[in-house]
Amino acid sequence: AVTKDLPDIEGDRAYNIDTFATKVGVPNIAKGATVCLLLNYVHAIGTGVLSTAGTFNKIPMIGGHIALALMLLNHFRSLTPTSIPSVKTYYKHIWDLFYLEYVLYTLI
C-alpha cells in the first residue's frame, strides 16, 4: 500500500498534496517496499526449506519464491526514481508480483 502514491507523485507535488511518498521520496519508498517484499519471499523460502515433507509442494514453494525475489530485485535495480515512466513500471511490476503469488499459491 505504501507504493500506491508513487505513480502520481509529480501530481501530488504540483498540487501540494502531502502523501507519504512526497514526504519520504520515491527512492526511500521503493527501497522500503522492496526490502519488505524481499523479506516475505526469504521467509517463504525458509519455510519451504525447513518444513516437514508433505507440508508444502517444495519445488514451487522454494523455486517460485526464489523466482519472485529475483524478479523483484531486477525491477528494483532497473528503477530510475526521477523518471515517472520508470516509477510507473516499478509500481506495475509490484502488482504483477502480487498476482503471480496468487498463481503460485495454487501450486504449493
From TrEMBL:
Q: Which UniProt keywords apply?
A: Transferase
The domain of life is: Eukaryota
Which Gene Ontology terms cover its molecular function? transferase activity
Q: Which family does it belong to?
A: Belongs to the UbiA prenyltransferase family.
Report the protein name in the record: Uncharacterized protein
Which organism encodes this protein?
A: Eucampia antarctica
